[in-house]
Amino acid sequence: MKKETILKFISGSIAALFFYAAFSKLMDYDKSVEEMRNQIFSVTIANILTWLIPTIEATLTFLLLFPNTIKIALWASLFLLSAFTIYIGVVMTGVFGRIPCSCGGILKNMSYDTHLFFNLFFIGISIIGISLEYNWKIYNRWFHFFKRKEHANQYK
Question: How far from chain centre, in Å, is Cα 124?
């Protein structure tokens, strides 16, 4: 597959995720407010996050669809997904004394373990997208390292 095709698939997948997340939060805004207020944040921060998170998700949806903005959108996606994943991980440790639930749509049916792996998958494809955008040759370096090691062992 061509690099551009893979990038379109990755950015389209992440854009679809963010579109769905933003759309589901905004379509049932009252429930979103209630669920955000169930989090560990103060009411003031929860009220801000209720608008801020879907706004960021919607913005990233559009930025991921345009070639001129895909690099920054992939980095921002990686950051946002990482923040969500770290929050899920901290919640799973029981630090807050309770497990607040705030996922909407199909995600509300996922356990926290499944949600964690779901987010890690999207973090992984974000990293792959970033590496393709920057033409990083991570895999080639890795495999060449092992080939050099094999050659060195041949002469012992």
Answer: 8
